[in-house]
Amino acid sequence: MSIEQLTVGELSEGELLARIFPRLNHSSSVLLGPGDDAAVVAAPDGRTLISIDTQTQDQDFRLDWNNGYRTTGYDVGWKSAAQNLSDINAMGGTAVSLVVSLTMPPGTAVQWVEDFADGLTAGIVGLGAAECSVAGGDLGRGREIAVTVAVVGTMHGLPAVLRSGARPGDILALAGTVGRAAAGLALLESTIPVGKLSAAQRALMDSQCRPQPPLAAGPQGAKAGATAMMDVSDGLLRDGVRLAEASGVALDLDPVALKALAVPLEAASAPLGLDPMDWILGGGEDHGLLATFPANVQLPSGFTAIGSIQAVAEGQHSGVRIAGMPADTVGWDHFAD
């Protein structure tokens, strides 16, 4: 039987793990990796950053999309790496290890699982986190594919950068981008066949399937004196409100900067007849890095100013404004959408 036909239900757990382990990324930060009851991870900083995220079939991704694209194990592996590494990045830290729980139906192709492991490693290395090891995990049987990743990181002696540190007068900046993954999602759900997408449209679709969080930006922002940072996973407005409320301030977005971010999205918005600004403000999953800096700090490479931090007058609420006007809160909500 060929590897394309072999399913996970036809292998023992040990046989499946034997196909996965050689494909995983390893580094010296993990003193004991897969194979025992628990991993042993070095923590030279004395503190540990930890985060966890889940992707579930038909909730966070579909195996088959309306435009004919079929999600690969490589896509899901890459995205699992990207969204978890981004959370550590948002604290100003770097990831050192992660563990993976993979649940799947017994009819899942072994090739899909091997592609998942390859995508996970490719995401870790390709996004610039080569010192992060896959320390272990768990395999389970279920009615749908679900992937949960827990990631551990270090601050290398620096204080963690929280959402609650923004102050009036700070510059609001973005590393990476917003809106591209939402544009890619719209293309996946459109009637434009995947084989007919232009190079620019395909790049937007890839932003949804394989996000590109700016992992160098978190530590650089921390060293430069960022007062607050957070990962933009649920949309610029929704996540901006979270940062504003945590800091007790208002975020005032610059419409000129927002329009510049929207220009690359026209490749999707024009044929679909949609407003790219909706993707800029409400689209998540690019995993850009939103940060605030004192006005006298030169922004680190990769950051672009997109607004400012304003004080909240008595009787007003924290939130997000655009050119001083209140902005509607839109974005992804795991339970409402």
Could you write a compact summary of the structure shown?
The protein has helices at 13-20, 73-90, 110-126, 180-188, 199-209, 217-224, 236-247, 255-262, 266-272, 276-282, and strands at 30-32, 40-41, 49-56, 94-104, 133-141, 146-154, 171-175, 228-232, 250-253, 288-293, 303-310, 319-322, 325-326.
Index terms:
alpha+beta, 13 strands, 10 helices, 7-stranded mixed β-sheet, 4-stranded mixed β-sheet, globular, 337 residues
SS element count, helices? 10
Query: What is the makeup of the main sheet?
Result: 7 strands, mixed
Radius of gyration: 21 Å
Distance between the termini: 42 Å
Strand composition percent: 15-25%
Low-confidence stretches: none
Spatial ordering of strands, largest sheet: 8-10-7-11-9-12-13
Backbone shape: globular
Q: How many DSSP E strands?
A: 13
Query: By helix and strand content, what is the structural category?
Result: alpha+beta
Give helix % range. 25-40%
Order of H and E elements: HEEEHEHEEEHHHEHEHHHEEEE
